[in-house]
Amino acid sequence: MDPRRGKATRTASKAGAAAPKAQGMKGTGTEPSEPPAALGAARPKAQMCGRVGAPGSGRKKRAPGSPERPPVRARNACAKKAPLGSEDAVEGLAVPAGKLAPPAAPGPPLPRTGSCRERGARAPREQRTLPEPTEVSGLDLGLDLRLGLGPLVPASRLRQRPGAWKPRTVLEKLKLRRQEISVAAEIVNRVVDHLLRRLQSCESEFQGVSRLCTGSYYERVKISAPNEFDIMFKLEVPRIQLEEYCNSGAYYFVKFKRNPKGNPLIQFVEDEILSASKMLFKFRKIIKEEIKNIQGIDVIMEKKKRGSPAVTLLIRKPKEISVDIILALESKSSWPASTQEGLPISQWLGTKVKTNLRRQPFYLVPKHAKEGNGFQEETWRLSFSHIEKDLLKSHGHSKTCCETDGIKCCRKDCLKLMKYLLEQLKVKFRHRKELEKFCSYHVKTAFFHVCTLDPQDSQWDTRDLELCFDKCVTYFLECLKTEQLKHYFIPGFNLFSRDQIDKINKEFLSQQIAYERKNGFPVFYEF
Question: Which reaction does it catalyse (predicted)?
């Protein structure tokens, strides 16, 4: 590669949405250096409790004279039909090679990114002044402006830079896993059905337990390894009252308003509080004994992870699969007061949909709250995974969005790519600890907030997949930079507070995402 060409190369992040400055990263296309020495320093002490406010946002307008957005793919391109029942079927059409329309730019054409002038002269670096703002029809490019990060770069320009990536190619790669996922799901269902029959027997304290179909498999956005599954067992509990733990908004002690003698859960009550640790211990014990009786499948239980609500099973034969089983208490009471300002979907899905969703039950899982250097083992955490499934199922502002005869959007594709980005980075740095506490729920929460900011289906046009994905990356980077990621249902609970994830870890992830964004996401093709 001509060294002059490398020096003249400009990235999409310089021309468009600005991400937080990554420490240890150079302006060249090399991987960021190792994290600073601060990584080895002592981490800040975890806070006992308390709420953290929501990040503010500014709003600016788009500059006029901007070139019209070209289609990211040819309109007549066709994608192969996904088989029925596959959870990773991709909405939208594939991009045929070589048929991308160039952008129509007013005035003299700008030199191509990374190009040199004739006779080998290098293009001088010029200071450009943005024109006055104007309205933009179609896709709203205002998310990054609202965050104060500058305008996003049109998808067409992103494709011009060296190492430009093709999101549809990545999604096709993910779609190839669906057959493998279906085979694994069949094995998991056999194990789960066997355990449910045992738990529902008259000898069990969990007689009323049933399966709650939530999670990425049922949301049809599963992209993680096809040998990993999350299963939730729900158990309805009558007439409970919640006592909020340390003003967290998310963690609660559970009490029964009455303690009838016939209640099988009465044995788990201590000082009027339903003990999460005792209940989880018994739940694990029954499952550990019962997996020995499953015919034709070799299953073992992994050691309990500190603070985790999951019972993790490892299926070794006929296929190696990891299954996390989580017990959830179902309450049909009104949602707790901490959720009053949550679920901000009025402009996105409508007030009627919001009202109907809030009439559904809520769930409590035995996830322990952090308390100093340890955990408060009797607390339960709110869970709204069933509502999240409904949001992704009916995700369009229009009722017919992504239906057979409806307009297609790229919301789910963006979520898949965001989840895959984090997953690949966790694989790449699996021997380090900086990314251990990050999970797909952080990505999903940020995605829901972007859907709230950009509620119209036209803002998620399938032709603008690359640009829409960049919107999501921009928002997530800003959350890492400001250490603010509000829980979508509990706005007073900050998922990125320092008692949840250390600042140095957020800086590390921000550096890695900024590097991937600058270089065309090479991590998508590494593993």
Answer: GTP + ATP = pppGp(2'-5')A + diphosphate; pppGp(2'-5')A = 2',3'-cGAMP + diphosphate; GTP + ATP = 2',3'-cGAMP + 2 diphosphate
Joined tokens for residue 55: 């990040």
**Burial bucket for residue 374 (CB in 10 Å: 0-12, 13-18, 19+):** exposed
**What is the Rg, in whole angstroms, of the alpha carbon atoms belonging to the chain?**
25
- β-pairing, 228-236 vs 321-331, is parallel
The answer to pTM > 0.85 is no
The β-bridge relationship of strands 374-376 and 269-270 is unpaired
| Cα three-residue angle 155-158-162, rounded to 5 degrees | 155
Largest CA distance in the chain: 91
pLDDT in tens, 441-477: 999 999 999 999 999 999 999 999 999 999 999 999 9
Would the CA dihedral through 100, 106, 111, 113 be positive or negative?
A: negative
Distances (CA, A) of 220 to 388, 418, 459: 12, 14, 21
Return the structure tokens found at 440.
């797909």
Residue 486 to residue 143: CA distance in whole angstroms: 17
Q: Tell me the C-alpha to C-alpha distance, in Å, between residue 23 and each of 427, 444, 478.
A: 21, 26, 15
Identify the structural domains of the chain with CATH numbers, from first to last. 168-333+363-383 (3.30.460.90), 395-526 (1.10.1410.40)
Tens of pLDDT, residues 259-310: 666 678 888 998 889 999 999 999 999 999 999 999 889 999 999 888 889 9
